[in-house]
Design a protein that fits this description.
By secondary structure, this protein is of the alpha/beta class. Helix 1 links the parallel strand 1 and strand 2.
Length: 247
Amino acid sequence: MKVKTILVSQPKPKDHSPYFELEEKHKVKVDFIPFIHVEGVDSKEVRQHKVDLQKFTAIILTSRNAVDHFFRIADEMRYKVPDTLKYFCQSEAVAYYLQKYVVYRKRKIYVGKRTFKELSPYIKKYKNETFLLPSSDKLKPEIPDTLDTLQVDWQQVVLYRTVVSDLSHLRDVFYDILVFFSPSGITSLFDNFPDFQQNNTRIAVFGTSTLKAAEQKGLVCNIKVPTPETPSMTMALKDYIIEANKK
């Protein structure tokens, strides 16, 4: 079956995006609707967990949400972030985003390539620091496992939660392809539509955990990313569209 419409379960990109090129070049309609959203935890709740921000000498930032909510909580708790605090950022994108809050050249910032495993050598090098890990309520098991293996002094603090979005306005809307990037997106689909039937809808998933969550719900995943041939979702979608629409 030909592909004419695609729903990406994430917010619409603000800047230039390969999705826009995909839409224009291959004459498909791409909509962006986040299936999940983030809600910040109140500073009162953080205090109840007896988290003393002053005792930490380093912070591990795995996402832009972690950056935003750490500085939000710091402000709410009237905690002046010291210039001496060391920042360990999982990726260049997270490190770049950090500039929204700190003067980059005046801080000690260590950057991984993309995965948490790639950041671990920097953490190991400074294993005598006391690390704070601001996170959501859904933390990948590899992160605490890695930190425990490194035998560093660390503490997690939940500063934001992943919440299912209301998708009731999509009940009678059909898309040729649904695109998912996390298990939470799959959960949202079935929380909103418990009677969802895949029928002719193609499912695209990014990552093994998303694939597993989709298959556990009985979904057939037609597009699986990343692969050596298609490391990005847009590349995989392009190849699939070309093949489907030439028939």
